[in-house]
Amino acid sequence: MTTALPPALRPWAAQLSLFPEDLARHLGPHVARLSAAVGTLRPRSESEGGEPQGYDGLSRRGPFDRLLVSEWLWALEAPEELVRRAAYGELSFLKPAFRQPQGARRTVVLLDVGPDQLGLPRIAHLALLVVLARRAEAAGAAFTWGALQTDPARATHAGLGIPSLHAWLNARSTTPASSLHLAAWREALDLSRAPEDVWLVGSSRLGRLEGAEGMSRVEVSEPMEPGAHRLNVDVRPSARVPRPVVLELPPPEDCLRLLRNPFRSEQASAGGPPRKADRRIVGFSFSGDGRRALLFSADGAVEALAVPHSPRATVPTPRRVQVPPGQRVVAAGWRSSGGLLVLARQGDTYVLHGQLRAPEGFRTGRYHVADDSVRPDPAPGALPLALLSRGARRGHGGHERVWLKDGKDRLFSLPPPSSAGTVAFELEEEGVSAMAEVKTRSLCVLRPRGEGAG
Questions:
Q1: What is the residue extent of each domain of the chain?
Q2: Which of 66, 93, 103, 271 is deepest in the core (most CB within 10 A)?
Q3: Cα 33 to Cα 31: distance, rounded to the nearest angstrom
């Protein structure tokens, strides 16, 4: 259950809660960008027609058979005033109301599961399902969707849930989408009657299918560039100009989880027999701002516990990060805006558990060292190191910066994550005796040059 999404993603909290929190944070920026390109679905007003259902308020315009009875008093007492009020639009009329038939509005989404869209494009499909499901819910419309190459009688889904998403993930086909597939869905869902909010999701060839006229489309493609790790998405609403969107994809291992089974946590997807949790607290430290106690468990978990202001104060549930088997916690820190960060080592690679803010959204990082002599690891038996974060600043290109100090008084910085692979730690300073966060600013204490380590 996703409980700590950034404020910008809370409109889609109900849909993103289907995924583990780390995957929801990966999908979240894609959802926000695609939602802005798709636009809203305006709910139908009851004044547009339908079955009459009495009156709803007053209006300054209307026929005189709906004029308020109190207004007719002017004809008896002051006829000239009645004429003046009519000329200046000051008379009050009853406003009629109409009732729309149930099910008059719906959103239909048909996704191509053929060879054109296998692999990474399905991550964009997944984000689009979240966007369009929430969009229909906000307008009070029904939400119906399915895979083009499947039988409509057995694979029509209403609403968004884990069983329906599982069925879509397994609905891969080696047959390209054709006009026959679209015709079957049009007949099964009675899509010949307008107006309808129908979306075709797939490659650009869907727009050339017979029967696709008047339907909105979302075209997803992978750029043909060496090392490119992104998707090009063209949102083409039927009544608006196309809007291109570029989606920077998460790290490859997270893409694999999204494509295989996005509903399992990272620990479960790592494979192997589950290990028995050892929740014994083996040590603790405080975050850089002093507002969180970081608890380190024997099973490799890190928890951030809020420090209460008084004995009677209530505290929120601790935030917890469980590193997978084979990884060892190296450093941890807390951010008032962003939550818990944990740096773990796996072999010669360092994996950052937590999301760093970047211009293109939230991203995770993987790091290595260029020289083993400057490896920032805690001493054997010592507590993990402290991490400090500084929010995204214009001077750093909009990237969040993270620093850590090792036991040899060396200050390292973690460069912004790269989609190309791991990046190297940067040694910033030596002789740093302490560091802390004061009023959201990261400060460090440098030992005077020439002074010995003792």
A1: 7-41+102-267, 283-446
A2: 93
A3: 6
